[in-house]
Amino acid sequence: xxxxxxxxxxxxxxxxxxxxxxxxxxxxxxxxxxxxxxxxxxxxxxxxxxxxxxxxxxxxxxxxxxxxxxxxxxxxxxxxxxxxxxxxxxxxxxxxxxxxxxxxxxxxxxxxxxxxxxxxxxxxxxxxxxxxxxxxxxxxxxxxxxxxxxxxxxxxxxxxxxxxxxxxxxxxxxxxxxxxxxxxxxxxxxxxxxxxxxxxxxxxxxxxxxxxxxxxxxxxxxxxxxxxxxxxxxxxxxxxxxxxxxxxxxxxxxxxxxxxxxxxxxxxxxxxxxxxxxxxxxxxxxxxxxxxxxxxxxxxxxx
Length: 303
Known about the structure:
By secondary structure, the chain is of the alpha/beta class. 36% of the residues lie in helices and 17% in strands. It contains ten helices and ten strands. α5 links the parallel β6 (158-164) and β7 (196-205).
C-alpha cells in the first residue's frame, strides 16, 4: 500500500545565521587593484604595499602623520564660504557646501594652523581633496594667505600641503582672484627671507598649481602625484598631438626641473624636518640626506 502514498521528504535548509566578513575589513588599491587589509593600509600611511601607490588622504590624517603630537593649533577654523553669485548647478552652492561639511567634518577645503615638526616651529596648511576636490574659493585663499602672514609675523617657516583640482568655479572671478592674492603674500614671504616649502600631492592642479603651489623655495612631491594646469585631454585636443606618457606626473616634472624632489610618504616628515633645520640653522634628531635640495632653495632665494 506504500506505493499509493505520497512520500514525505525533509528539505535541508541552510542555517539562518552565518558568519559575515565585517564591512571595511579590506581596501582595494585604485591603481593595481590589489586587496589589502584596511589595517595594513592605514599602518602604511595610505600607501599600497603592493605597488607603492600613494592614495589621497584626508587633511586630518595628514596632520597626524606630519605634526608632532599635541602641538598643532588650528587657526581660522570657523571660516566658511558665502554664495556671492547665488550659484546653482546640481544643487544650490550653500547646499553643496553643507553636504561636504557633513561628509568630511571640515568647514572648508583647507585646514591651517601652526605647530611643530620634530620640534621645529612651522605655519602649515593642509588641503583636503575630499572637500569639493580641494578647490580654492575665497575662504581657502584667505586661510592660506593668513597662514603665510602668520609666518611673517612670527618668523617661522611655512609649509603647504596641496591637494586640489584648482579654483572653485562656483565663486567665479572671486575664486580666480585668490591666485593673485596668495602669490602676492608668498612674494612678501620671500622678501622677508622666510623659508616656504610646498608639498604637492595627488592631484595638484589648475589655479593652485598656477599660484602658491609652485612658488615654494623648495617644491616637493609625493610619488606619482598628478601635477597640471590643464587636463591632458584638453591639451591634446588643442594642439592635436599625443602627449608624452606620464607627462603630468611627478616623475616627469622632476626630470624637467619643475619640482625639486620626490619623497615617499613614510619619509616625508623626516625630510621636512631636515630641510627646515638646515634652512633655519637648527638641528633635528638625524642627519639630513637632502643637501642638494637646500642648495636649490638657497640659490632661488638669492635671486
